[in-house]
Amino acid sequence: MTSLLLALAITVAQVMLGLAMMCAAYRMIRGPRAQDRVLGLDTLYTNSMLLLLSFGIQTGRTLYFEAALVIALLGFVGTVGLSKFLMRGEVIE
Description:
α1 (2-30) runs antiparallel to α2 (34-59) and α2 runs antiparallel to α3. With 93 residues, this protein is an all-alpha fold. The chain has a single domain, classed as Helix Hairpins (Orthogonal Bundle). The chain has helices at 2-30, 34-59, 63-88. The relative contact order is 0.11. It has three helices and no strands. The chain is elongated, with a radius of gyration of 16 Å. GO terms for molecular function: sodium:proton antiporter activity.
């Protein structure tokens, strides 16, 4: 019963994360301002990282955890770069 409940909870979480990713992609594409697009991109990479983590829990493979770590690092650097560009107009000073 416990493993069945865990499998159901992971599947529900994956579906919900997929829906959240679709909402974030919509905000990224249709955002009225550049700040909305950056926020949509930030939410999209966070949701994709969590989706990979849930796949890793479901399958037990470490490859998903490593990919989630890479997405988190690159997403953070991308968000900082885009934020700096929006504030100052240049990334490298």
